[in-house]
Amino acid sequence: MAHLSDTGIIGTSVFSKLINLRDLLTARYVQYQTYSKTLRELESLSKRELNDLGLNQHTLQAVAREAAYGSA
After folding, report:
1. Are 31 and 69 in contact (CB under 8 A)?
2. Can you list the pairs that 8-15 forms with residues at least 24 positions away whose Cβ atoms lie under 8 Å?
3. Which three-class secondary structure state does DSSP give residue 10?
4. Does residue 58 form part of some domain?
5. Per the domain annotation, does 13 fall within a domain?
6. Which structural domain, as residue segments, surrounds residue 59?
7. Looking at residue 57, what is its pLDDT?
8. Domain count for the chain
9. Which residues are CB-contacts of 63 (< 8 A; sequence separation ≥ 6)?
10. SS3 of 61, please?
11. Is residue 10 part of a domain?
């Protein structure tokens, strides 16, 4: 009895998959950096400045998340 096992990825090399993974991780890291920077900047504003922007302490994470990752 013969057994055949194909471990290749049809149409895509392993090297190509690694490149795609690297690009994905890089993009995610850039998004995270954008989120962190935006949140830090918003948290540095006074309550008065936040009120002028129509924001409060409870909405800062959502605003930073939308800025970095887009709307949910």
Report:
1. yes
2. none
3. coil
4. yes
5. no
6. 26-69
7. 93
8. 1
9. 38, 42, 55
10. helix
11. no
Q: Are 33 and 67 in contact (CB under 8 A)?
A: no
On whether residue 9 sits in a domain, the answer given is no
4 pLDDT tier (thresholds 50, 70, 90): low
Instruction: Give residue 54's region: left, alpha or beta (phi > 0; psi -120 to 50).
Output: left
Q: Taking 90 as the threshold, does the pLDDT of residue 24 lie above it?
A: yes
- For the chain, what's the residue count? 72
Of the candidates 18, 66, 12, 9, the one whose C-alpha atom is nearest the C-alpha of residue 38 is 66
> CA angle 13-4-11, nearest 5°?
20
In this predicted structure, the answer to whether residue 8 has a pLDDT above a threshold of 60 is: no
Does 2 score more than 80 pLDDT? no
Nearest one of 57, 69, 66, 61 to 29, comparing CA atoms: 69
